[in-house]
Design brief:
With 333 residues, the chain is α+β, with helices and mostly antiparallel strands. It contains eleven helices and nine strands. The strands form three sheets. It has a five-stranded antiparallel sheet, with helices on both faces. It starts with a strand and ends in a 9-residue tail after the last helix.
């Protein structure tokens, strides 16, 4: 099914490896979680993350292809962000020019808006969780995707969250003050920190110690360099606002003058009843023929798609479909 290659990363309970799908030859990331080391609440949290990733299918969110659950391990087959993460890029190369930052920031904002439309707050937005799809940087078709929904949570409009989470430098004042907070508005603050770093090459709030950093964040004390355009300054200043209800909305972000004229090829987010990407009948039949030639039953493939499965059959179909049409529209489950 998959040929494993080098290790990409390691956490407390998991290892991420690069692997190649045998039939499609596409590279994927495989997150291997050792369930024997997890407490019951940690297992519940893990299952929640998987449920969220199944729900959020968007061109600018890292895609979950397959879930394989055994007695001791959980394997998540994920889209591979081959170009590294945004933090790594900015640390190595410094700030971006604004036209490029506009394109990439809009992609991130579109992904977050889609999550919020489906009542999911990410709660850990930061450059480390924004990954480049390929190593082809600084090109018009450059794509960035949001990942890591480990701290995400469902929300009801107007309902406050209480669990403080996220990374210090990207956390909003109300989270640091341990106040009940609005998840989507906390995400908007984090978008402001990400944008600031993209156009300046540094964080707006980073002091020699955590206490000083927290003080700066709570007091919202930051300075935008003079080389940043007035329109970009305006957007940052409307994102990084102490009072959550005064922060700019995602609809206003996407309509802001700084992003005016920035167009990304975002497919329609129309739901599809049969769980299949929108490809032609000819492409669909060609994929089924390829899978049949590999010994996979087309009837079972069709059933896996109709049942919205996250098994090997469905993942193989979708990987082959991406080769037929790399930008096929979003699916909502």
């Amino acid at each position: 099914m998959y040929n494993f290659e080098e290790e990409l990363g390691r956490g407390h309970f998991s290892i991420v490896k690069k692997a190649q799908h045998v039939l499609s030859k596409d590279m994927v990331a495989v997150k291997i979680i050792d369930k024997t080391t997890l407490q019951d609440d940690e297992l519940d949290h893990l299952h929640h993350e998987v449920r969220v990733m199944k729900l959020i299918r968007h061109p600018h969110v890292i895609r979950l292809y397959q879930v394989c659950n055994t007695n001791t391990k959980l394997y998540l087959i994920l889209e591979l962000g081959e170009g590294g993460d945004l933090y790594e890029y900015l640390t190595k190369n410094g700030k971006m020019d604004e036209p490029r930052a506009q394109r990439l920031f809009r992609q991130i904002a579109e992904a977050v808006a889609f999550c919020h439309q489906h009542h999911i707050a990410h709660r850990d937005l930061k450059p480390e969780n924004c990954v480049f799809a390929t190593r082809k940087h600084e090109e018009e078709e450059e794509t960035i995707k949001v990942t890591d929904f480990g701290l995400s949570n469902d929300f009801k409009p107007g309902e406050k969250m209480k669990t403080a989470c996220g990374s210090l430098c990207y956390s909003c004042p109300e989270v640091l003050l341990q106040e009940p907070y609005d998840g989507p508005l906390a995400d908007i603050w984090s978008l402001g920190v990400i944008l600031f770093m993209m156009v300046t090459g540094r964080l707006p709030f980073q002091e020699p110690n955590d206490y000083q950093t927290i003080t700066k964040i709570v007091d919202v004390k930051f300075e935008i360099p003079a080389f940043v355009s007035n329109e970009c300054k305006d957007l940052i200043s409307r994102l990084l606002v102490k009072e959550p209800s005064d922060r700019i909305s995602l609809a206003e972000i996407l309509a802001h003058p700084w992003l005016e004229g920035v167009v990304i090829n975002l497919p329609s987010a129309t739901p599809y009843a049969n769980g299949r990407p929108v490809i032609s009948d000819e492409q669909h039949e060609r994929i089924l023929a390829t899978m049949s030639a590999a010994g996979l039953d087309p009837t079972k493939v069709t059933a896996a798609l109709d049942n919205r499965s996250y098994d090997y059959l469905a993942s193989t179909y979708f990987l082959l479909a991406e080769r037929e049409r790399p930008s096929f529209p979003v699916l909502i489950f």
